[in-house]
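Email to the structure team, subject: Arfaptin-2 isoform X1 model.

Hi all, the expression group asked for a predicted structure before they design truncation constructs. Nothing fancy, just the tokens so they can compare against earlier work. One-line instruction: predict Arfaptin-2 isoform X1, return tokens.
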Amino acid sequence: MEDKTGWGLGTGVETLTPVPSLAMTDGILGKAATMEIPIHGNGEAGQLPEDDGLEQDLQQVMVSGPNLNETSIVSGGYGGSGDGLIPTGSGRHPSHSATPAGPGDEVARGIAGEKFDIVKKWGINTYKCTKQLLSERFGRGSRTVDLELELQIELLRETKRKYESVLQLGRALTAHLYSLLQTQHALGDAFADLSQKSPELQEEFGYNAETQKLLCKNGETLLGAVNFFVSSINTLVTKTMEDTLMTVKQYEAARLEYDAYRTDLEELSLGPRDAGMRGRLESAQASFQAHRDKYEKLRGDVAIKLKFLEENKIKVMHKQLLLFHNAVSAYFAGNQKQLEQTLQQFNIKLRPPGAEKPSWLEEQ
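Reply from the structure team: attached below.
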């Protein structure tokens, strides 16, 4: 049974992992940051069925490592003592003389100890999240699910894929229109030149040259409108939607951490209630509460961003689809006046006269 509310402790964990002893747990947590989990992501034998995204999820868990501006060499690994810390800022080997350590050495050891704690906490968190992720994928663990929010997120991802397809087609259309304009311009120049050199066909070449120049002018106007349409779609897809999906990724990572610490607390709650276990239980309860607050906050942020994104998408696309329809209809109807009015209505400025190619192409 899954905890679909996200509040309190779940009571429907299908399979509970036996609680290890205190010594065994400390040994596992001490090696958490260095453990490796073999994942087959190349489609060969050994890959889990219907689990193509497992490797990506594991990588997402691992990328949130600590950012240390300065590092120290720790001898003996996580099980070593603080006396094995060697600052890397000096190129000299540590002296083994009996000279007492100075204040500078104490400060260096304090900094190295803080960094060691940061790495250890990150390793424990990574271990818990990886364990929770694998438990969910193997069907042995429960996960918190907000059905309505999950449906909206999946709909957003599908919408983004469709808008990316529209964006790609729009860019192809602008490229074809630009090639057509270049051809019409060259054809008009050729007709104009032949009208001067062929007196018997001067009139025929002349009005064909004027027709190509008019088509070229209208085509430039249409090109400006289509480029404005493509630019707006690009902003909507690569900035607005992408920003919302970044918040969604943070929400999904917070959900995984929340479920990992929830499962850990549930397992500890089933163990003996001696003095040492009570201390660990209180610490697990505090960690669980902190991650639940983070999860609830990000869930609210995602819901708000999805709502604003939908409103903004409708507003932007209403304007852009009206522009695209009016511009294309006026162009193929040969209505130059309506085409120019469409650009004025949406405040679109064309390239200055005499430019060799449209300004939109120079910006690409």
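The two ends are 52 Å apart (CA to CA). Residues 202-269 form the longest helix (68 residues). Ping us if the truncation boundaries need rechecking.
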